[in-house]
Amino acid sequence: MPSLADLAALGAVMLELGPGPGAATEWLRHRVGRLVAVESDGAAVEKLRARFADSNVEVIAGDATNLDFGAETFDSVGTFTMLHHVATTRLQQRVLAESFRVLRPGGVLIGSDSLASNELHLFHAEDTYNPMDPAALLVRLQAVGFGPITLIVDGDLRFVARKPDGATTHRGSDERQ
User: Fold this and answer.
1) pTM summary value
2) Among 113, 121, 119, which Cα is nearest to 140's?
């Protein structure tokens, strides 16, 4: 994450999607004024709420494919090793589109994920494993309106994508339906 944060200002208010146990949350909360974490797993939500009680972190039970926030609410959005847990390419695209929608113009999406491997496929035998192809991610980020985009492929996949200044809607807004 430090390498990603060096490429983008996170701003005052950040949204983290799919924090899981909160490893990235712990690092991020010291770099923004307010961090909102949206998690779909009820047990994880309760653990995160207890862990980050009385801090600048607000933990919300929710769905990253259909965020319950108005447009242009956040300065930055983060997805850290969560996109491969999204069951389909279409749903992954909705996560990207929702990220774009809730970002303020000039805001940034930062993220990381694992690269496809047989080892990870076996590790995820009992859960969802839908790895992101780096080349496809570039096109998918462009399709919802992000640009410029930085992809780093070096043992894992890291990315920074900016919502252009003045951009208020994303292409493919029907993705929310």
Assistant:
1) 0.89
2) 113
For residue 121, pLDDT beyond 60: no
CA distance 44 to 36: 14
CATH number of 2-164: 3.40.50.150
Question: Where do the domains of the chain lie?
Answer: 2-164
53-62 long-range Cβ contacts below 8 angstroms, 24+ apart:
55/29, 56/29, 56/32, 57/25, 57/29, 58/34, 59/19, 60/36, 62/38
**Segment 37-86, tens digit of pLDDT:** 999 999 999 999 999 999 999 999 999 999 999 999 999 999 998 998 89
